[in-house]
Amino acid sequence: MKEAEVIDRLRRIATHPGARDLRDDAAVLDGLVITHDSVAEGVHFFSTDPPASVGWKLVAVNLSDLAAKGAKPVAALLSFSLSDMDWDFGVIDGIEAACESYGVSLIGGDTIALLPDAPRVYGLTAIGRAAAKVPSRSGGSAGDGLWVAGSLGDSAAGLAQLIEDAAASGPMVDIYRRPIPLLEMGRALAGHATAMMDISDGLLVDLARLCSASGCAAEIDLDSLPLSSAFVAERGQDRTARLFAATGGDDYALLAAFPAEFDPVSLSLPRAPTLACIGRLVAGSGLMLHDRDGGVPLPERLGYEHRASSASVDDRL
Amino acid sequence: MKEAEVIDRLRRIATHPGARDLRDDAAVLDGLVITHDSVAEGVHFFSTDPPASVGWKLVAVNLSDLAAKGAKPVAALLSFSLSDMDWDFGVIDGIEAACESYGVSLIGGDTIALLPDAPRVYGLTAIGRAAAKVPSRSGGSAGDGLWVAGSLGDSAAGLAQLIEDAAASGPMVDIYRRPIPLLEMGRALAGHATAMMDISDGLLVDLARLCSASGCAAEIDLDSLPLSSAFVAERGQDRTARLFAATGGDDYALLAAFPAEFDPVSLSLPRAPTLACIGRLVAGSGLMLHDRDGGVPLPERLGYEHRASSASVDDRL
Questions:
Q1: How far is the C-alpha of B60 from the C-alpha of A210, rounded, in Å?
Q2: Is A128 in contact with A203 (CB distance < 8 Å)?
Q3: What tens digit of pLDDT does each residue of B117-164 get?
Q4: Interface with chain B: mutation pick from A72, A111, A136, highest number of B CBs within 10 Å
Q5: What are the chain A neighbours of B32 within 8 Å (beta carbons)?
Q6: CATH topology (fold) of A2-129
Q7: What is the pTM of this model?
Q8: Which of A108, A124, B75, B157 could cross-link to A77 by cystine, CB 3.0-4.6 Å?
Q9: Do A105 and B30 touch (CB under 8 A)?
């Protein structure tokens, strides 16, 4: 796994404690929470996607990392590859819409002109103000309850529709293209969570990362996964559908661990999204799945961990 | 000039005062100075460049922006496109060498795998701690003396050698590939400069930006430009050579304005580089050049302002 070797090598340069050893969603520096994610044409988005949704998603996926740390977005730096004017302005429309929606000011960055025919690439550094506590991935303990805020599988279902038909549309395509960072929810949960991260590559692979960082295993009840009505209408809610939702990725839901005795539903929470208890952390290592019919074998593919596409520097088991 | 239109459009999102209206080398937020620059294969570096020099330069050009604001480097986030292992590790060797040389910790970022044959792209967000004063480009006034720290033209001469012969070597090729950010000098000057920026695209185009931001014109004595012995040995120091040095770019020297009565040489300065007075700001707009033989017409090309390659979001007249 070449990416892992590169990240291992990079870890030697990650000497600052705020780097969190490159194992978290974001870094912490001087009361700021800072993250960077890039997207490339043909890898993270389609050339046929509406450019405004490319810009929106670039901002939203970075803000989702801030949400997972309970931070309040403040500013962003943008790396923007110049292309044709209509496309460029479309992308910026989407960036602006997301920045305005979430109170983010663009404070810098650069524009680059790539070689003709080179795929477009965009990068964003998002900066948020840290709350009193910035939960990491590593603070979970055996016995903690595992909760998911948001629903799973919609985005992957939308992507599947687009792969079949580039002109597909509907609520799941919308969620794939225009994810909503759960900023309010993240802020409400951050002070109480023992560990928290966003689900970007799939529940199971991201949960495996949280477990690895926390030195625990996890037991998950597939029947408790939060599914949207649109998802159930399209794919049902049997074991196959639930495994699809648990491994699909691009959810930008939040995964949080809380002490066993703590009920996060007792917190003052935003009205949406739903918050569902999906299982618990236990001693050991690895993931154990079950549903009403008993144990469920772990699927071979837990999410996008091995894809040749995007992986945060921190996205390492 | 399409890039300018894109930046104008982006400026609408740059609502935070620390964005400095996207007209400066870096942003200022919560006592931190933050900048981002990307480099792309075939545009900012050659496929035949040693990968370690690509990594070094990625860090150095960002730290040069921090130097121009008098900031002390602290941390960086890296966007890294995965390629073959030897190349990747070579680039990281260079990134590590620069980070260790200047006290920078890697705190985050991401790795992306691009499509096969897509040019490699790297981005870096560099973060420094601000000193008491963070000079902008816009604080200069008519009467201020204009000073350059560092020498001009070496890097452009090295690039010209490489374009002629990809196997060229020597001191100017070294400077092109491994620029030195003038961090100590920047910190020494920042508290006293009325305006300061780094010279990345060429003295004349960058000076025109400083003049535009400060609402002034400038008079420059070409004979006073600081040239290295290696440059003079290769290209001489006649008007042609000096105009080459004034427009070459990739210098990563510092350009600073000081009140007329102030002599920055009186400051406690690092032993290197040299600090040369090259002219002064005057009322009006535009640039006026002269040398011992009288007035010198402004060259058509002031630097890399129109190149289809790199331009910081802030690099706009």
A1: 35
A2: no
A3: 899 999 999 999 999 999 999 999 999 999 999 999 999 999 999 999
A4: A111
A5: 29-30, 32
A6: 60s Ribosomal Protein L30; Chain: A; (3.30.1330)
A7: 0.93
A8: A108
A9: no
